[in-house]
Amino acid sequence: MFRAGSSKLSAPLRFRRTLATHVIQTPPVVTRVTRHDWSKQEIQQIYESPLLELVFRAANVHRQHHDPSKIQLCTLMNIKTGGCSEDCSYCSQSSRYSTPTKASRLVDIDPVLEAARKAKENGSTRFCMGAAWRDLAGRKRGFEKILKMVREVRGMGMEVCTTLGMLSPEQARQLKEAGLTAYNHNLDTSREFYPKVITTRSYDDRLDTISAVRDAGISVCSGGILGLGESDEDRVGLIFEVSNMPEHPESFPVNALVPIKGTPLEDNDPVSYQALLRTVATARIVLPQTIIRLAAGRQTLDESKQAMCFMAGANAVFTGEQMLTTPCSPWDEDKAMMSRWGLEGMRSFEQVNVARKEGSRLLDSPSTPDVEAEAAPRSSVSQQAL
């Protein structure tokens, strides 16, 4: 037998012990560069990567740029229903289709303010208002009423978003002056597939409105709808379009088509959950600072599927009584779900990019959080490398 005290073995023993216990400390590499030059091929490779690897990578990116325990709660109200002259093939509000949705006038201000107060009491910090219009041409009185709605809701300390169709630069400027936080104008799908879905408004028309909104200093909310009959390449094409904008949208809504009787897409098959999850995760990697919003169709996902989307980078939901014309998960259910998963709601103007665009308006308001405090990085958020 060898003896432990042997001089011949003492050096090797020390060497082996060192290997077993010594850990080389390598500083973590933190990637914080936001790119605006993604190619379709690069995004396609991300989208097609093994699903669990994709979600893992997206989760790391999410933790570099966001607090993973925070979810933004948003409530959407339809302030003018139906009668739209557009032919969006998924929409029950088009006047070209015979659907259960009936046209109505622009609602009065008081019901909107009541709905906004109720949303705030239930934890929503962004209140969105949608009107079924192609544009605001010839709607001077209606637009003035909407500007007042924006001012009043903003006065409650909430973020305010509208979707009113196409905007001119002057209309965008007026909305900004009234206190609008964000404007929703979805691209819906890829440039290539878009003409199969809509013919009354071009892709470039949509991009022009987004440019007007961005130039006015309003945060852009622009995403798409899955389940229109598009391919994986079209989902990649949608992310490619927004990733190459001069500024990435502040939020990227991911909608799953809710087929409505009477529309051309009423018989479409539901989009697969895997496609939805891949879209969320790919968008998170390519749009690292953007809020990824689970929108229409979320109520069809069970809790575990929603949790996986949150893991992959989704950090906002629509909650409340209803979306525009489709069902919505109610506040109580969403708050209970978030509690079970250890999630909490964001405060108004908590997202850094939104706070930056609001600038002095927030600093002058006693009802909103301090911009610099909200913009400060959180020490508890992991800074792992990709």
Automatic annotation (TrEMBL):
Q: Which UniProt keywords apply?
A: 2Fe-2S, 4Fe-4S, Biotin biosynthesis, Iron, Iron-sulfur, Metal-binding, S-adenosyl-L-methionine, Transferase
Family annotation (HAMAP family)? BioB
Q: Which InterPro entries match?
A: Aldolase_TIM, BATS_dom, Biotin_synth/BioAB, Biotin_synthase, Elp3/MiaA/NifB-like_rSAM, rSAM, rSAM_sf
Q: Which domain of life is it from?
A: Eukaryota
Tell me which family the UniProt entry assigns to this protein. Answer: Belongs to the radical SAM superfamily. Biotin synthase family.
Pathway the protein acts in: Cofactor biosynthesis; biotin biosynthesis; biotin from 7,8-diaminononanoate: step 2/2
| Requisite cofactors | [4Fe-4S] cluster; [2Fe-2S] cluster
Entries under CDD domains matching the protein: Radical_SAM
Q: What class of enzyme is it?
A: transferase
Q: Keyword check for Signal, yes or no.
A: no
EC assignment: 2.8.1.6
Q: Lineage of the native species?
A: Eukaryota, Fungi, Dikarya, Basidiomycota, Agaricomycotina
Region described as Disordered: 358-386
Radical SAM core domain location, by residue?
Answer: 66-298
This chain belongs to the protein called biotin synthase
